[in-house]
Amino acid sequence: MAEAESERHEETEAARPTHDEEEEELLPKKGATSVVWNFFGFRKADKDQKVILCKVCRGTVAAGGGNTSNLFHHLKIKHAKQYYESQKMRGAPAASKIKVAAPPLVQKSLAESFAKGTPYDKKSRRWREITEAITTHICKDMVPIYTVKKPGFRELLSTLDPRYVMPSRKHFTAVELPRLYGVP
Ligand SMILES: [Zn+2]
C-alpha cells in the first residue's frame, strides 16, 4: 500500500511540466546561419528542432522551411530591443554588401589588389614610376586632378597593375604636381 502510493507520487512528479523545464536553457538551432537565431532556440527534448521558442518570452514561433522572416517579425512586434540588436548584427555584413554594390569597380579592384599580391611600398621604384606617369598624364593631357578619384580611372590602374595603390588627390596636388614642375 505504501509502495503504491510512492510510485504514484513519482509518476505525477515526472508527468508535470516542471518549473525547471521552463527555465531550461534553449539549445541553438543546428546549422543556423541567421543572426536571428541568437534570440530563438529549442528544448533539449525537441530533437528535430521543430518547436521554435523565443528566448525572451518563451513563446513559440512558427517558421517553416528555415524561413527566418517570421522570427524577425516576432522580435519586431514583441521585443523592440532585441529586434534592434538583431538588425545591428545583421547590419554589419549587410552594410559592407551595400558598399560593394555602390562603387563596384573600386571595391573589386581593391579586393583584387590584395588577392594578387601585396601593394607596392611607396618608396619602391615601381610605385614612383606609376605615380609619376599619372602626374604626367594629368599635366600633359590637362585632365582635371579629380580624375584620380574616378572609379574608371582607378579600375584602369588596378587592371594594369593590381599592386599599385594610388595616393590621394591631395598628395598629387601637394607633392607630385609641384615635383613635376620642379617647384622646390
Ligand atoms: Zn518573444
UniProtKB/TrEMBL annotation:
MF term (GO), any: zinc ion binding
InterPro entries (alphabetical): Znf_BED, ZnF_BED_domain_contain, Znf_C2H2_sf
Basic and acidic residues compositional bias, start-end: 1-19
Disordered: annotated span: 1-27
Domain BED-type: 31-86
Coiled-coil residue windows: none
Name of the protein: Zinc finger BED domain-containing protein 1
Organism name: Merluccius polli
